[in-house]
Amino acid sequence: MTQQNRISGGQIDTSQTLKFTFDGKQYTGHPGDTLASALLANGVRLMGRSFKYHRPRGVLSAGSEEPNALVELRGGARQEPNTRATTVELYNGLLANSQNRLGSLKFDLLAINDRLSNFLTAGFYYKTFMWPAAFWEKLYEPIIRKAAGLGSLSLKEDPDVYDKGFLHCDVLIIGAGPAGLAAALTAGRSGASVILADEDFRMGGRLNSETFTIGDASGADWAAATVAELASLPNVRLMSRTTVIGAFDHGIYGAVERNNDHVATPDEGKPRQTLWRIYSKQAVVCAGALERPIGFENNDRPGIMLASAMRSYANRWAVAADKRVAIFTNNDDGHRAAADLHAKGVKISAVVDTRADAPRNNDYEVLVGAQVIDTKGRLGLTFADVRLADGSERTLECGALGMSGGWNPNVHMTCHQRGRPVWNDDLAAFVPGADLPAGMTVAGAANGDFSTAGAMASGVIGAKSALKAIGLKAKTTKLPQAEDAPINISAFWYVKEGKGRAWLDQQNDVTVKDVKLSHQEGFRSVEHLKRYTTLGMATDQGKTSNMGGLAIMAELAGKTIPEVGTTIFRPPYTPTAIGVLAGRARGQEFHPKRLTPSHHWAKEQGAVFVEVGNWLRAQWFPQKGETHWRQSVDREVIATRKSVGVCDVTTLGKIDVQGADAAEFLNKIYCNGFAKLAVGKTRYGLMLREDGIAMDDGTAARMAEDHFVVTTTTANALGVYRHMEFVRQCLFPDMDVQLISTTEAWAQFAVAGPNSRRLLQKIVDPEYDISNEAFPFMACGNITICGGLRARLFRISFSGELAYEIAVPTRYGDALMRRIMEEGAEFDVVPYGTEALGVMRIEKGHATGNELNGTTTALNLGMGRMVSKKKDSIGSILSEREGLNTDDVLMQVGIKPVDPSKPVPAGAHLMNLTGPVDADHDQGYVTSACYSPILGHHIALGFVKGGGNRKGEKMRLVSPLTKVETEIEIVSAHFVDPEGERLRA
Amino acid sequence: MHSLSPITALGGQTPKITTIGSINVSEIDSLALASIATRKGGKTVTEKVLKSMIGSVPAVGKTCSKGSFSGFWMGPDQWMITAPLETHETIADDLVAAVVSKASVTEQTGAWAIFDISGAAMPDVCERLCAVPIREMNVGDVCRTSIHQLGCFVTPMNSGNTLRVVGPRASARSLYHAIEVAAKSVA
């Protein structure tokens, strides 16, 4: 297909042709085109359907403010909805489809909504679908969602990768138009480290779209030469295709760089986009300005666009919006569009100017004091009806109509920290206020300096101001001569004539009437207007529509526009993919994993892993023939209790506590006493929170007078360390105590079972006597193993068996695990995982995180007497609160089913044998439950009111959610070896 | 000599060395580490030991070296000392003997994984890993930062062409993965 609207000139490479497909039809374009410019070049004006009424829509703009020309870009898993055709850089093989339609784009069946528009005004769903209530979720909402909405998701995993990164600079310049380039030149030549970011793939901003000259060169050529000079400066980083999306605290800006959006498929390993966090000492916002449309009846037909966009298409992309165009303007800029297109041989039907003093500079018609009152054309503009100054009506034949309602400085970035823009009457626009984020200056059109010369000059001033703020001297930058036309505008927001719909927010289908309805229904705050009508709530965030809505609201309320004010501007400036916010943190790499020292060995054994915090722990080790996890776990428990088992317990937190006051410090941290613990001994310790509730438990081993090794539970390792640091630094800063985590420095293994000593005796060097007499229960010490490797040995037991924990420097953990298995073969040693570990600790009645659940006290846990009265420790006072020490306080107990074949579900609640089953009659709950292969039935730990006196009592165990009701008996929590004979053996 | 063979943080018998484009990522398994923290009244002795061992007392955000020993600032009154593992595996014991209870010494060799990222594009890789101002950092600087949610120390070395990353050993694979994908982005 020929590019029938392609004209000469522009900044595209016509020596190369690119093929692309839109709605299944193939077209051609050139490098430098956007999807929108290429479609227009091919005579395609109809690019999408509107949100609510499914009105036919084409491009309104030529930039990121585009509300209408949204497409589903690419296909398959890479399909991306709501992509603005105006910012999509054309590449060979590009695939795009129109969206939000039922049927074809030309014959969208949901266009019926346009006929029902009287029923679909602002807030219609708040009023229309109120009854019957049950219909909302099942009927109304699905239908509305089907009819409205924009693009669709592929529902497939995004195959591309996204990066995150961090940049630092002296001066960040946001926008590379005339102001941004002048600012970058000034700062770059002065030696500052500069980042110049621009959302476009070609830097230059409006210079690429206008025919003004700068010095002897065209604006575009000057921009290209300036960019080339900046690229040669090592202290300047040029970032095109990079949108600064937000201004955050302390000079930090978020920016999305589209690294590979301009290719079909990024190279392997290369990111599609990168989210940069830019740390700037100073920032100069040169974000330019956006032209405003004008509200009039049927101002949304394909072919009706901003006059500045019309110039962009003609001058930058060599595309005539149509063979015959008209202009509707309230300022001189509209005339420039007519002049530029006229010069390129496009027929100008007329320039319709609302002003009585409109200029006449060319040999085409200017309709002075006139207004466009309506348009015609089903799928694209064909005619525009004009009310002339004398009251008569005239129809203009045109396939495109350029609107120019004035310009809005792009104040977005200046308001991200609640700054408010201020009204400028001369510009009829808001400009940045004085309450800018720290370190920010604004220059160019973003600051209301609309002429080219004015923008460049203010860019230089902005850069100088930034340099001065960081103590750098600016070198003189001489600017070439440039256009410096004054602003000549007469505020004009919408045409009052006509009963039809005049569109304000084209993406969300909000009309002038909707704003009036909102006012009529009592919404006076601009924020309420926004939410009731959805004005400015679409993906374009109302960049082309908010101002019109505010102006109409002001008129209706009898206020000035600044009295009405603006809504809050929030990041991101343009729609941002969730993928780039996630970066590499997705799937298996969502968070880092921690591998135990024996991980590789365990993997070789086919271990099944479970995530505990970030740790991957072996849950059980299936053996051949085992088809159910219970078979593996039961075997591991039985083998360990019968002979010996080994478990990697490196994950338990280890904190090195040293210093002259180390013992006194532990005395404060733990509720039980530690000051008198002998060197070479380990003690179980319980930590309380300030409020007397149990925080964590573990052991502290005294390796020397001034050296303890504290262990914590795996889950609480970080929290306990943080707590201890708080206590050290804030509560007892005078104590001589130093802390450091050694969790990962030592590989630690529990070796448990009646043969554990015999096994370890084969590994521990013979000079160390680990007999029961020399190394009794709760002993600890530094030893050597395997011929001289330094190690630590602790005689502690979580399983209730004769057991040790042996630690070696982490790098030897793998080898030690293998050696234990080799040496233990004669004892039928088994590795056991966290499930068997859990079963054995329940059998023994040892509490863990399930019991230390943030609501339980030492008393609840059956350790009330451990809270020493002879000393002050954290939480001891508040643990004495009356409410925590009542006669019927919850106490930890053992639970077993009366019928041994019945399971005991964790989380179930305990009720008396008779009486109601409800919260008022709750007697307690189950915290941990398992099948005990040693006892041959299920067992559990739990809390029951007054538990100490209820042993032997039968109760009902109920789980209403799982519909379980079982009779159980309250028993001792120590199911196995209640006297502790095994662990002392 | 004991009979247990060590493995590296990445689980290999030898350190992993990877070339990705012009970037080299090397696992460093040849360093012994120990932390040293001043005890109350121990400033003079601790500083004397530090000066003797690594040449000076590293200030906040600084490293220093003397011979094969290096050290960097970890926190208030706390430093990390490194030395060749082959000759100084018992560096912690040596330090304990030197500070005579005036400082707390803890063996850290097994707690950390170390990776060196080398090549002209090292700063580009670093920018995709962490928030340190790498282009403003010099040899002798060290910064604590977060890489892929992991607390790490980073320090430029070898005339600034190499970045040494010291991160938690148990997460060595995740840390290496983060470095690898960042290097692929840049390569």
UniProtKB/TrEMBL annotation, chain A:
GO biological process terms, alphabetically, are: tetrahydrofolate metabolic process
Give the SoxA A3 domain ranges: 499-584
GCVT N-terminal domain: from which residue to which, for each copy? 599-871
Q: Which GO terms describe its molecular function?
A: sarcosine oxidase activity
Known SUPFAM superfamilies for this protein?
Aminomethyltransferase beta-barrel domain (SSF101790), FAD/NAD(P)-binding domain (SSF51905), Folate-binding domain (SSF103025)
Q: Which UniProt keywords apply?
A: Oxidoreductase
* Domain (Aminomethyltransferase C-terminal): residue spans on this chain: 893-977
Organism's domain of life?
Bacteria
* Keyword match Oxidoreductase: yes
For this protein, the record's InterPro entries field holds: 2Fe-2S-bd_N (IPR042204), FAD/NAD-bd_sf (IPR036188), GcvT/YgfZ/DmdA (IPR028896), GcvT/YgfZ_C (IPR029043), GcvT_C (IPR013977), GCVT_N (IPR006222), Sarcosine_oxidase_asu (IPR006277), SoxA_A3 (IPR041117)
Its family? Belongs to the GcvT family.
PANTHER family in the cross-refs: AMINOMETHYLTRANSFERASE, AMINOMETHYLTRANSFERASE, MITOCHONDRIAL
Query: What name appears for this protein in its UniProt entry?
Result: N-methylglutamate dehydrogenase subunit C
Q: Tell me what organism the protein belongs to.
A: Cognatiyoonia sediminum
TrEMBL record, chain B:
Family annotation (Gene3D superfamilies): Heterotetrameric sarcosine oxidase, Probable tRNA modification gtpase trme, domain 1
Entry's InterPro entries?
TrmE/GcvT-like
Domain of life where this protein originates: Bacteria
Q: Which SUPFAM superfamilies match?
A: Folate-binding domain
Q: Identify this protein by name.
A: Sarcosine oxidase subunit gamma
Organism, scientific name: Cognatiyoonia sediminum
Organism taxonomic ancestry: Bacteria, Pseudomonadati, Pseudomonadota, Alphaproteobacteria, Rhodobacterales
